[in-house]
Design a protein that fits this description.
244 residues, alpha/beta, Rossmann fold, globular, SAM-dependent_MTases_sf, FkbM_Methyltransferase, FkbM_mtfrase, O-methyltransferase activity
Length: 244
């Protein structure tokens, strides 16, 4: 039956893809600006920023990382690249300060407290909190106004359950669709207190006229989808992607 369906789809010009495409290569195909503006929010030690630099040699990349240890590594790693700026800020819904939970595995640090069931869900103690620090926060709208940034070509989000608040802080930019592409981690399993369910993300993005292109890097435990990276586009752009 599957082969029959595939042959029918191919007869009408629809491709059938068995392999998951690489998310960064997909973004490279979608973004055609000669010098794109890229926000790497939750940059950690810069692996995503390095992937963007490889594919967009002339991009202006802003890395946002509030945890001092990781921010220092970012600054050292990209010290010779004037096109990459490191901001020791946490992006959120608004400007101010917040308590960051520092966990046993620093890549899981979050402004949100760890859910009591996180260890049971993941089978690891990576999210156990050892201390808290005070970090400065700002919203994307406020940051862009303060730095005269009219458009973001790629907004990458990996802030451990706080992606919804970051998007809320970009409501003005999203309303006028001044963000061309959003590549965001979404955690499905209960991991942080206050993380929003997937339905709220879909409602929020639809309210701004964005739709889901695809998801990448799914992590599963048994039959359960634990997390994945989602790529969102304005609907006008999304409707053109079937010909790419």
């Amino acid at each position: 039956m599957r082969q029959l369906v595939e042959r029918c789809l191919q007869r009408f010009g629809f491709g059938v893809h068995r392999c998951r495409p690489d998310a960064f290569e997909v973004q490279k195909r979608l973004v055609t600006s000669p010098r794109p503006v890229i926000f790497d929010v939750g940059a950690h030690i810069g692996d995503a920023a390095a992937s963007y630099r490889l594919r967009f040699p002339s991009a202006a990349i802003s890395c946002f990382e509030p945890f001092p240890g990781a921010a220092s590594q970012l600054e050292s790693r990209f010290a010779g690249d004037p096109g990459i700026e490191v901001h020791r800020l946490a992006l959120a819904a608004s400007s101010g300060t917040s308590q960051m939970n520092v966990n046993s595995y620093v890549a899981t640090n979050s402004l949100l407290p760890t859910d009591p069931g996180a260890t049971r869900q993941w089978g690891l103690k990576h999210c156990e909190t050892s201390s808290t620090i005070t970090v400065e926060t700002t919203g994307i709208d406020q940051f862009c106004k303060g730095h005269s940034i009219p458009r973001i070509h790629i907004l990458k989000l990996d802030v451990q359950g706080g992606e919804y608040d970051v998007l809320k802080g970009a409501s003005e930019m999203l309303t006028r669709q001044a963000i061309d592409l959003i590549y965001a981690e979404m955690i499905f399993a209960p991991t942080y207190q206050g993380q929003q369910p997937p339905g709220k993300y879909f409602q929020l993005m639809e309210s701004f006229g964005y739709g889901l292109l695809d998801f990448y890097e799914p992590w599963r435990s048994g039959l359960r989808l634990m997390q994945a990276d989602l790529l969102w586009l304005p609907l006008d752009t999304l409707n053109q992607t079937s010909s790419l």
